[in-house]
Amino acid sequence: MNRWVFGLAVVLGGGLAGATNAADDAGHATHHPMDQAGAAAATPQATRDDRQLVAFPGMLRVHTLSNMRDHLQTLGEIQGALASGAFDKASELAEQRLGMSSLAMHGAHEVAQFMPKGMQDAGTAMHRSASRFALVAKDASATGDLRPALAALSKLNQTCVACHAAYRLQ
Ligand code: HEC
Fold first, then answer.
1. How much distance in Å is there from the Cα of 37 to the middle of ligand 1?
2. What's the 56 CA to ligand 1 centre distance in angstroms?
3. Measuring CA to CA, which residue among 69, 67, 62, 96 is closest to residue 81?
4. Torsion-angle region of residue 107: left (phi > 0), alpha (psi -120 to 50) or beta?
5. CB atoms within 10 A of CB 33
6. Which of 95, 164, 168 to mutate to test the pocket of ligand 1 (most atoms within 8 A of CB)?
7. Could you give the CA distance from residue 8 to residue 65 in angstroms, rounded to a whole number?
8. Using CB atoms within 10 A of its CB, is residue 56 exposed (0-12), middle (13-18) or buried (19+)?
9. Among 68, 70, 124, which residue has the most ligand 1 atoms within 8 Å of its CB, making it the best to mutate?
10. How many CB atoms lie within 10 A of CB 168?
11. What is the distance between the alpha carbons of residues 24 and 126, in angstroms, rounded to a whole number?
12. Residue 126 CA: which ligand 1 atom is closest?
């Protein structure tokens, strides 16, 4: 790469990162190490893909990606429920569609045999984290305090990010 172009890319990249941080700082007083890792993994300017390629049989790949889209949909529904103070609903959505109770629905056992160990662990971490959120959200219906539920939701979100940063499907 020509030195000028490289310099420009650094300036532009730095500018973008600066803008993102400023926007972040407006919303949060503190940064956690995990947030930084998540941000780095999701760098939009990435030009290389170092994620491990995992081969799933065709139908299982289609099925898995459809599950994934439901995961994202569920996170949105959970956020909506929290915003309207429907803590029990948020809890139930998380447990039934993402938590330990969802394993059978997702055919987790069948899918797991095609996953490397690290990916299986990332999946388990997500299901556990969703069930933990479900408990915290239930507590919130008694205390009325949204913050612990939001913190648990953020942890759940990080388990999605961690798996996506490491694996992709063939
Ligand atoms: C155990 C690993 C793992 C976990 C945990 C995980 N995902 Fe995924 N997800 C994947 C893989 C692998 C892909 C395919 C990525 C690729 O091939 O580029 C994917 C793809 C997706 C897609 C794209 C679907 C499509 O149609 O292409 C969405 C949306 C998604 N995931 C949402 C989520 C959300 C939300 C969570 C957390 C609640 C989550 N995922 C948790 C592994 C995971």
1. 17
2. 13
3. 96
4. left
5. 7
6. 164
7. 37
8. middle
9. 68
10. 12
11. 24
12. 5
Task: Quickly tell me which residue has 């239930």 as its tokens.
Answer: 138
**Count of residues for the chain?**
170
Q: How far apart are CA 115 and CA 125, in angstroms?
A: 14
pLDDT tens, the chain, 170 aa long: 444 444 444 444 444 444 444 444 444 444 444 444 444 555 677 889 999 999 999 999 999 999 999 999 999 999 999 999 999 999 999 999 999 999 888 777 888 999 999 999 999 999 999 999 999 999 999 999 999 999 999 999 999 999 999 999 99
Question: Which residues neighbour 169 within 8 Å (Cβ) at sequence distance 6 or greater?
Answer: 53, 54, 55, 56, 61, 64, 65
